[in-house]
Design a protein that fits this description.
This protein has seven helices and no strands. With 162 residues, it is an all-alpha fold.
Length: 162
């Protein structure tokens, strides 16, 4: 039988192929859009933004190519900080009390959305870890182990002959 018959289509964990620049740009655009929509629907940043934030974190972790995992791993806290800081500067009443200064409004906004930040960040890191492990197993499976069960690769290793 041909090995082509045994090849399986890529799983969800293997499909991410987008460069981090595209993934991060799209994530920021979606978060800013969600921020505007949430402020149109209510007087402050609320549950709608939190749900979109967690969803964006999961989507970014699944779409990025393996080479760019670090960039997406750093995305959730920086994206949340960026949105909260922009609101703290322009409309502090949306993330804190209206009379709070920029720093206090930023801290209050981050604390107020800490659960969404924690869930989004944890989901993003967990998905990246699972993808890394799956991709490592796929690479080992494709390279084929040696007869003693150990993978032989790298410079200076003699070929495995028996």
């Amino acid at each position: 039988m041909s090995s082509a018959l045994h090849e399986q289509p890529p799983t969800l964990w293997e499909q991410g192929s987008r460069p981090s620049r595209e993934v991060v740009s799209l994530a920021v655009a979606v978060l800013l859009t969600a921020t505007v929509l949430d402020l149109l629907l209510s007087e402050g940043l609320g549950l709608f933004f939190d749900l979109v934030f967690v969803t964006v974190c999961v989507g970014a972790a699944l779409r990025v190519r393996p080479h760019d995992f670090f960039d997406v791993a750093a995305l959730p806290p920086l994206a949340m900080l960026g949105v909260v800081l922009l609101l703290a500067i322009s409309q502090p009443g949306t993330v804190a009390r209206p009379d709070d200064g920029v720093v206090q409004a930023t801290v209050s906004g981050m604390a107020g959305h800490g659960i969404a930040l924690g869930l989004g960040y944890a989901a993003c890191l967990a998905l990246l870890a699972v993808r890394r492990q799956v991709l490592r197993q796929v690479a080992l499976r494709q390279s084929g182990p040696s007869q003693d069960g150990l993978s032989r690769s790298g410079p200076g290793l003699p070929p495995h002959d028996e």
